[in-house]
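Q&A log
Question type: sequence-to-structure
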Amino acid sequence: MATDPIKFVVLDEEDLEIVSTHLQDATVKVADVLWRAKEKRVVVALNRFDWEAATQQTPEYRRRRAALRFERVLSCKSRDVDPAKDDVLNLLAVEFVEEDAPAGVVTLIFSGGATLRLEVECLEGELADLGPAWTAAKCPDHPEAAQAKSKADNKAKTKAR
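Response status: OK
Response body:
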């Protein structure tokens, strides 16, 4: 069962939460993060995991090439990202914290502690699929999350006794 390519405009935190959900486990080459300072724009080319197809009654594991773009970006800073390497990062979430309305900070959070921090005049962006999907070898796994949930469940059961 094929799903249609997605395209979302991001203008508020609710929009960004939806985009973040679709981007969980996207892979990003460091070289595919483009900071266009004069244009006040950041563009990230990525391979997003198609969670919609993976959760169908007959799951399909696929990835799609996509672009995430933010406008009105005042600065782009990174932590634990080496711009000289051709590393591949695993995107976990995209968050926004409003600081001086409507300005704030967009943070792209990657596994292993790497982050991109974008200071923005306001929240304005877009996520768009760029082409057809291809088969992925497997569904991304989150053993840390499963372990944390299991510990919390055990703690709750022990407390209830």
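Response note: The beta strands are 7-10, 26-29, 33-36, 41-49, 62-71, 73-79, 88-100, 103-110, 115-120, 125-135.
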